[in-house]
Amino acid sequence: MMDGLVLGIDLCDEYMQICCAEEDQSWMLPTVICKHKTTDAWYIGEDAYAHTLFGDGIIVDKLVKLTVKNGMATLGATRYQAAELLKIFLGKVLEFPEQKFGTMSVSQLVLTIPKLEPALIETLYLCFEQLQIPRKRIHIISRSEAFTYYVLSQKREIWNNQVGLFHLTAEGLCYYELKVQRGLKKTTVFTECETMEEGFNLDILDTPSGARLADKILCSCGERLLQRKLYSSVFLSGKGFEQQAWAEDFMKFLCSKRKVYVEPVLFARGAAFRAADFLHDKTSYPFIFICDGRLKTSVSLNVLHKGQDTVVTVAAAGDNWYECDTILEVIPDEQDTIDFLLTSLDGRSRRLIRLPLEGFPKRPNRTTKVRIQISFLDDQTMVVLLTDRGFGELFPASKIQIRQEVML
Amino acid sequence: MSLWLCRQESVKHPYYIEALGLPIYSSQELSYVIYNNPLLVLDDFVNEQLLTFLRDELNQGFLALKLERWLKNEENPDDALLVILQECDYYTAAEIAKYRQLIVNLRKLHPADFGKRKADELFELRQYGKALKLYRELLQISPDQVVDEIYFGRIWQNIGSCHARRFQFEEALEAYEKAYDKNGDQKVLEQIYKLSLLDDRLVLKSQYQLLVNEESKELWEQMLTDAREKAAASPEMEQLEQLFTKDPVKRQAGMSQLLLQWKREYRGMA
Q1: Residue B253 has pLDDT above 90, yes or no
Q2: Which of A208, A278, B22, B212 has the lowest CB atom count within 10 Å?
Q3: What is the pLDDT of residue A184?
C-alpha cells in the first residue's frame, strides 16, 4: 500500500463497488442507507436491508437518483437532504478500505458514475470534501472512461484491436466498445457506450424458460454488435454475468475467435487505475481519450503574445469537460468581439464563433481588459462568461458580463 | 485587429502614480501611463519603489534587475522607460519606436517650454495642485528669447485657471489680473469678467470695467447662463435629483457615496 488509500469507486442506484489500486480485495454493496429508529446509528448495504427487515430501521434507496433530483427523505422525525444521506453513505463505504488497510488518509479517489450530470458531480465533490478529502484528490469520471483505463492497464494484446464490454445489471444492458487509433502524433482511444433497448429484468433468469429467452436476446445483440469487426477481447461485467451458465449460446458465440473475460468489478478497478495514475507526474496513458465525459472538439483563441500571433487552446479535445474551468484575460485591439475557433478532433472541421462585446463601455483602444471564463455544461455545450475588467482605475470596470452558451 | 494576451499578475499592493494621483495594478497600466504621459515620466519615474513593484507585485524580477543596473551605471534614464515598454509587451515595436522619437523631440525643447507643457499636462489631468506648483516654479526662470512677458502672462493665466478649478476665486482673479498686465490678452479679460459674475464677493476693478464693452458683457453673460443651463441638464444633476426621490435610507447611502466621490475628486485636484 502507498502512504494513503488510492481508491476506485463505481456508484449507481443499484450498487456501489470500491477497491484499492494494486489490491485484489474489493467491496460491493447495494446503494441503500438505513437509519435506526431510536438511535443515531446508520447502516448501509446488506446491513441496511437486515435492519429494515428486523423492523428497527428506516431505509432509503435510489440515493443517486434522489440526489440528482435534489430530493429529501424523512427518516423518523428528521428530514434529510439526499446529499446529506449520500455523504453518510460514502463515509460508511470508505470505512471498508480504511479498516482493512489501517489508514484514514486518501491519496487519490476516482469515482465513476453511469451518467455525468454537473449537479451530481458537484454534490459528490462536496460530499467527499465534507469527509475531509481535499478536492484536488477527488476525480469523477464516466464509466466509459473507467472501462478505457481498465482495458489500457491490461496487456497490449488485449486491446490491439477492438474491445467490447457487455454490462448487465438490474438497471439494464449496456454495450461499450473501445478502439485504438494509432496516429502520427498521439494515439487516440475512442470508447462509446450504447444502452441496449433489449435490456431485461434479471428476475427472468430464475426460471429455465426465462434464462433461455435472455440467452436468445443476448445472442441477437451480440451478433448485431460484433459482426464483421475484429475484436481482441470482450469483457462481461455486472450482476447479470455473476453466473454465465444461463447464457450458454451467448458464451459459445462470444468465445469463438475472441478472448472473453469476466470482471465483476471492472468499473471500480478502472477508476482505481486512473487514481493510481494521478499519483505520477507523468501519465502512464499517453493517449487522447475520446469518450463520455471528454471533449471531442478543441476550443482555441488567436492572440498576440510577445509580438507574435499565437494560438491559445482553452480546451482541448480529450479534456474532461466537467473539470475544465479556464480563465484568461485579454485586451482587444481595434476589435469588439472575442472569436473562438472550434476544431474537430481530426482537424478537418473548423468553425469560428464570434461573440460581440455588446454593452461594454466605449473606451480608448486597448484599455478594456476582458476576462474570459470557459466551462462546460456537457461535452457539447460550452459556457463562455465575458467580464468587463476595465483598465485599473484609469478606466474602472463596469459590472457588465456576457454569458453565452455555445454548441460545439 | 487582435487580442493581446495578458500576463497573470496578482497585484496585492498597487503602485501609486504620484503625478496622476492614481494607483496602477498591472504591467499594461504601467505601460499605458508611460506611453500616454511622457512629460510626467521623463524625470525620476524609474525609482526604487517602482523596481520593488515590478519585482514583488508584477513578478518581473528580471526587468527590475535590468533597470537597477541601468540606474547604477547612470545610463540614459529615458532608455529605462523604453526597456519597460519592451518587457511589458503592451505596445508593438513600431509604437515603441515612435515613442522613442517623441522623447528625443521633447528633450530638445527649451526648459521653460518643457516645464510648461508638463504643467499643462497635469492641468489636463485635473491635477491642479501639482500643476500650480510647477507653474509657480516656472515664474522663477530667468527671461531670455523664449521666456518673455508673453510667456509669463500665459503662466499667470494658467495659475489663475488652476485656482479657479479649485474654487479659489479670489486667488484666481489676482492671477488673471497679473496675466492681463503681462500680455493684455482679451481671453484673460473674459476670464476676469466671468469670474466676477461667478462670485458676488469679487469686485471688478474699474480699470477692467472700462475695458469691457456692452457687447462683450452681453455675450459673456449669455455664455455663463448657457453653461449653467447645460450643467443643470447634465446627467450628473439628473442622477442627483433622482437620489432625492429615493427613500431616506437609500438617499442617505447614495449621498454618502457621492460625497466620498466628490471628496476624492477634490483631493486629487488639490
Answers
A1: no
A2: A208
A3: 67
Cβ–Cβ under 8 Å, residues B90 and A367 = no
Q: Is pLDDT at A254 greater than 60 in this prediction?
A: yes
- Per residue in B63-98, pLDDT (tens digit) is 999 999 888 887 888 888 999 999 998 999 999 999
Residues of B in contact with A335 (CB under 8 A): 1-3
**Which of B1, B2, B3 is the best residue to mutate to test the A interface, defined by the most A CB atoms within 10 Å of its own CB?**
B3
Distance, CA of B17 to CA of B14 (rounded, Å): 9
Taking alpha carbons only, the member of A283, A339, A350, A361 closest to residue A317 is A350
What is the mean pLDDT of the segment spanning B106-110?
A: 91
Asked if residue B268 has pLDDT above 80, the reply is no
The least confident of A127-131, B219-223, B236-240 is: B236-240
Pick the CATH number of A145-268 from 3.30.420.40, 3.40.190.170, 3.30.300.20, 3.40.50.700: 3.30.420.40
CB atoms within 10 A of CB B99: 19
Residue A353 neighbours by CB distance under 10 Å:
17
**Nearest CA to CA, how far is B30 from chain A (Å)?**
10
| Paired residues of A29 in beta bridges | A16
Of the candidates A338, A339, A394, the beta carbon closest to that of B22 is on: A394
* pLDDT tier at A1, thresholds 50, 70, 90: very low
- Fold classification of A297-407 (topology level): Substrate Binding Domain Of DNAk; Chain A, domain 1 (2.60.34)
Contact call for A332 and B3, based on CB within 8 A: yes
What residues does each domain of chain A span?
5-133, 145-268, 297-407
Chain B's closest residue to A336, CA to CA, is B1
The verdict on A314 touching B (C-beta cutoff 8 Å) is no
Residue range A229-244: average pLDDT? 91
Flag if B32 and A301 touch (Cβ within 8 Å): no
- A157 DSSP 8-state letter: G
Query: Mean pLDDT, to the nearest integer, of A28-57?
Result: 93
In this complex, do B29 and A392 lie within 8 Å of one another by their Cβ atoms? yes
CATH architecture assignment, domain A5-133 = 2-Layer Sandwich (3.30)
Strand partners, A5: A106
With beta carbons less than 8 A apart as the criterion, state whether A147 and A266 touch: yes
- CATH class for domain B122-209? mainly alpha
Q: Which residue among A312, A339, A366 sits closest to B5, beta carbon to beta carbon?
A: A312
Interface probe for B, chosen from A334, A352, A393 (most Cβ of B below 10 Å), is A393
CB contact under 8 A, B5 and A366: no
Closest CA to A226 of A256, A249, A264, A205: A256
What pLDDT sits at residue A64? Answer: 94
ipTM entry: 0.79
What residues 78-97 of chain B have any CB closer than 8 A to a CB of chain A?
Answer: 89-90, 92-93
Amino acid letter for position A319:
D
Domain definitions of chain B by residue range: 15-107, 122-209, 243-269
The reply to whether domains A5-133 and A145-268 share a CATH topology is yes
**A333, B3: Cβ pair inside 8 Å?**
yes
